[in-house]
Write a structure and sequence with these properties.
The chain has 205 residues and is mostly helical. The chain contains 10 helices and no strands. The chain is globular, with a radius of gyration of 21 Å.
Length: 205
Amino acid sequence: MSRISSKRARFRELTYCHYDKMFRFAVGRLGNAEDAEDVLQESYAKAYKSFESLKDEVKAKSWFLQILINTIRDHVRKSRGNPPVVSLEDVADSEILAISSAKTDRQDPAVHLSDAEINPVLANALTELPDIFLTPLLLREIHGASYQEIAELLTIPVGTVMSRLARARTLLRKKLEGTILRASRNTQSRSTKGQAKDKNTGDRL
């Protein structure tokens, strides 16, 4: 095996095993799969070019995460005039209400970030969180990163990590509660209109 082939094989072995979680992180940060895929591919290209800079293979995941985080930030800065938007027009109110069906969901909806596919309602709420709160939350919930690992990745104190995570959960819960309340009102409104229509039909008969 040539040196280049050996390098490529080792790179794939150390980084592609984390692909799914890296993709979910990018979706959570950018709000849509298309941009997430583009940024992730760009990150892999950057990582391969600088593979020699990885001195400790045990830290390959954190090393790649740092590249991905920086690439996402560059992407967001370049597209600041066109912020990502997750449309809820095609999402049924029943699906929106489903996210609040369990008590644990209402207490901490961030638990759903570890799901194989992020709920569009949750993804929409995530796009409204400031990066300083969103990134630590995604690292914690999707990658299971410790407070210390997040602190090292973001170069902030552990105490700051903990306070930002608490703030992120509070903001996310409030944004989802607003979306759920609107969906509940829509459902009630349609039910009332349907009942009135049935009554009018019955009266005519």
